[in-house]
Design a protein that fits this description.
By secondary structure, this protein is mainly α. The chain contains 13 helices and two strands. α2 packs antiparallel against α9, α3 runs antiparallel to α8 and α5 crosses α6. The radius of gyration is 21 Å and the shape is globular. The C terminus is likely disordered. Pfam families: EamA. It comes from Phaseolus angularis (Azuki bean).
Length: 314
Amino acid sequence: MKGNNPYLVVILIQAIYAAMFLLSKAAFDHGMNNFIFVFYRQAIATIFLTPFTFLFEWKTAPPMPFWTFCKIFFLSFFGITLSLDVYGIGLIYTSATLAAATTNCLPAITFFLALLLRIESLKIKTTSGIAKLIGIVACLGGAAILAFYKGPSLRFLSHFHLLDYHKGLQHQGHAQSGAWIKGCFIMLLSNTFFGLWLVLQAFIIKGYPSKLLFTTIQCFLSSIQSLVIALAVERDFEQWKLGWNVRLLAVIYCGEKVGFVYTETTLDINGMIGLISVLGGLVLILGLYSVLWGKNREHMPKDTQDVEQQASGK
């Protein structure tokens, strides 16, 4: 049973993400500004994490050098604030279905960035190396298919319209293929920022191992950065009001459950699904699992790999 615990945790996390997708979609469809949403998310995450930081690490955390604080500031800006804001802009040009699909490129992008920074290695002559290389190419190919091809729409017997506030705007935006392609590249840019954040924070954690305090500081700095950006973009006070509605629920849920770790990917419940988009998504997911399989095999004991190779040779 213990061996299945990681899989149960992954299923639980995906269920939490699914609820976050729906609530985020509802908040945006009720007219909430993306930049304001990011600020509230980061602020709620900071408030949620601060008591735990004081309780578990405040007394044991080492003093933070000023240069480390500066690194965390820029890491928060590019990896959290800018990543979330850019991703929201990408949603304007495309659909939330594609936004959710492009997040599957994140492991491949992260591995590629780690490879450039010489944190990871790629052994072409090994099975794991070939699998990771194929996975990276497949992820990029799947993303390209999603960006450049849509294909005929798949119509289901029952098409459930749950959130249709921006339905007309979505169809109007999708009519411009140039805007769609631009949105795809913007989303990939956001995932690149997030992947770079995942890679670079490993260097900071080595020098400053208090992970909970490190996380809380990032949320705090990101909330300040998001506030400045939101004030510059949206100065209508009415847009800042939450009220007792789905906007408040989405902000609280996304801030507490996910905090700074996830972008506001949302599910496009209203839009029709293109056949080519489905195929592109499948290619992208296969590439993702190819990278993960190669990474997992790389960490297997050498004796186990030799036994598997002999068995496959027979």
